[in-house]
Structures are given as C-alpha cells and as structure tokens.
Amino acid sequence: MTDFIYLDNAATTFMDYDVLKAMEPYYLEKYSNPSSIYSFSRENKSAMKRTRDVAAKLLGAKPKDIYFTSGGSEAINWAIKGVVYGNEGKGRHLVSTRIEHHATLHALEFLEKQGYEVTYLDVDETGQIDLSELSRAIRPDTVLVSIMAANNEIGTILPLKEIGRICREMGAFFHTDAVQAVGAVEIDVEEMNIDFLSASAHKFHGPKGVGFLYLRSGIVIENLIHGGNQERGRRSGTENVAGIVGMGKALEILMAEKEEKNGRLTSLRNQLTKGLLQIEGSRLNGPKGVDRLPNNVNISFSGVDGEALLMNLDLAGILASSGSACTSGAIDESHVLQAIGVEKEYIRGSLRFTLSKYNMEDEVEKTIETVKEVVMRQRKIGR
Ligand code: PLP
C-alpha cells in the first residue's frame, strides 16, 4: 500500500478504499444540494439518514439525536458552548480534566474569559480520575461535566458508566469526547447516561472534515453555527453529503470488524510495547492494563530528544509522534504527560506510536529494531 510504516493513527487514519468508493457518486453524480426538492436531492437525504441510523445503532442512541458536524473539534465546541449558553439559569460552573484534547481545553479557556468557572480534575500516573473527586467537584451550579472517553496521547480509557451515573445523580449534564474511543470502546449512551458525545470520521478510516455530535433530545442547547437551518435547524451549512456517506460506510465496516480488530491491535500493541521496553532507559507512559486503548503505545527514552528521534525514524520510513515539540524556539511539552507526572527528561524523550488494522507484525518488528538503533545512536551523539 505504502512504502512507509504509518504508526500515527491517533492523528489520522488511512481511508478505507470502500469508503472512498461509497463517497465517489456523491461527488460525481449525485452532487445536488440535499435541501433542494428534486428527487436527486431526496436520494442525498436518504443516504445521510443511513449514516445517522448506523451512528445511532453503534451508540444505542436515537437517529434523530445525531447531528453532523465538520469533525470532532466542532462537535466538542458545540457541546460545551451550546450547553452553557443554553442553560444560563442553571449556573456558570463546569468540570473537566487536565488531560483533555485542546478542542475541549481551549473551548473551556474561552468560556473562562467570559466569567465561567472550570474545575479541572487531576489524574493519577495512568491518566485516571478519582471518582470521589468528581463527586466533590460537582456543585448545584455545575452545568456540564466534559470528560473524554479515551485519551489521544496515552490511551487511557475513562470510566464512562461511573462518570455518567455520578453526573445524572448530581444533576449535571455529561459530554464525552469520544473521538479516539469510537470503535475501540463499547459505548451505550443510555446505559452510561451520556448526554452529548463527539466523534470524528477520520479517526476510524473515514474522511477528514466530518463528524457528529450526539445530542440527547429534550436538553436545551444553543446553536454554534447559524445560517440556513440545516440539520433540523440545529447546525447550519450545506451538508457534506459525500463525507457523511463516507462516515456511514466507515462506521458500518467498524461495526462488522471491531471485535476482531481490537483483538489484533491488542496483540500488535503488546508486541511493540514489549520490544521497545527492552531498550535500556525506556519507560511506558500511561496505563498498563485493560484501561488502555488497544492501539496506543506511549514510551519515553532517557537521555534522548523525542523530536530528533522522530526525524530519524522518519528518515527510516517510520511515522510516529512525540510528546514535546520545539515551537517558536520554546519547548512545548505535552500537557498530558505533565498531568500524569512524567519528569521533564522523559517528556523530552517520549514517542507515541498508534496502530491501525493495516499494520502488520513485521512492521512492528522493524519499528522495534529501528527505534533501538536510533536511540543508541542519539545517545552516543549526545555523550
Ligand atoms: N478529541 C480528540 C481526543 C482527538 O484526538 C482529536 C483529534 O486529534 C480531536 C478531539 C479533534 O478532532 P478533529 O480532528 O476531527 O477536529
């Protein structure tokens, strides 16, 4: 397929060929605006309905509670801002965690500048929150609790069912950023008392620039995007029909494959973790048990610079990501690795590998060998 080894699937995934095939007619033939009244457009509407149905089925939700967006960031921003603006009478306090994606953290910072108050829950060395701390943090004026379903850097899977129960009992709405969790973690919005859930197609072999927000009916939420009243008046803008169709196809494939895929990923991940941990001065960041995404390996090497490692891996045809980057002359360290207490030196030498169903055992072996060589070489240069 490609002449490089792609191990950055938390950043984005390869789009399935069947997804592309499903999308093609909606660019080349059935390209009308779905709001037009000719039969052509009715077909577009029913194609979008199929995606709504499959997304709802995956989450145990009602199809009418699925709203299409331009991806995860929009869904998250809509849930967070929309809920607080729509429920001003309830209060101006929110609860979240220190390990959320920037889509959440920056939306919360935006609200803080407007006088909202946010309590950020600390996490332990595996990225887990303390549920009793969550209970203590929720107040009568807490409008929303926003806690991710799974972390994109260290793969921690958060206990959605317990979080949902606490939020429901204490009268706060619950939003979860499930961008990394869809297909990897079983989610049932009813059983888990989830009121809002954000997802993004490009993380599960669908197209970029399309996602959805699950929005429990009956809850008042302000619109984020105003205009032509598409999506039943909740999210304006001409629908990305081909993207939505592609997301539906990707979800269908995911539902058919998820058990087998997660089993395979777990064994590849264990192979990669074991191999990398044999390198002297290495350390796994994040959870070690079943509360870790099946495709995530986040590992640090002492005495090396992660960015230099990344560049050397890139030269060897291996694509991954690191927990620190040099931006405009300053070192930008991962807030997630900081939150779980990783020391500076280990943050500097951290790498994240995220697998997909397209990765093979021999790629994992080659990665282990190459990382070993590159780390040794870097250490020699650094001495
Ligand atoms: N939330 C998490 C946990 C993510 O990993 C990402 C993307 O990396 C996002 C949100 C943003 O999603 P999108 O790229 O679709 O805007």
Automatic annotation (TrEMBL):
It comes from Proteiniclasticum aestuarii. Keywords: Iron, Iron-sulfur, Metal-binding, Pyridoxal phosphate, Transferase. Its cofactor is pyridoxal 5'-phosphate. GO terms for molecular function: cysteine desulfurase activity; iron-sulfur cluster binding; metal ion binding. Belongs to the class-V pyridoxal-phosphate-dependent aminotransferase family. NifS/IscS subfamily. It catalyses: (sulfur carrier)-H + L-cysteine = (sulfur carrier)-SH + L-alanine. Residues 5-366 form the Aminotransferase class V domain. PROSITE patterns: AA_TRANSFER_CLASS_5 (PS00595), EF_HAND_1 (PS00018). PANTHER family: CYSTEINE DESULFURASE (PTHR11601:SF34), CYSTEINE DESULFURYLASE FAMILY MEMBER (PTHR11601). Its EC number is 2.8.1.7. Gene3D superfamilies: 1.10.260.50, Aspartate Aminotransferase, domain 1, Type I PLP-dependent aspartate aminotransferase-like (Major domain). This is cysteine desulfurase.
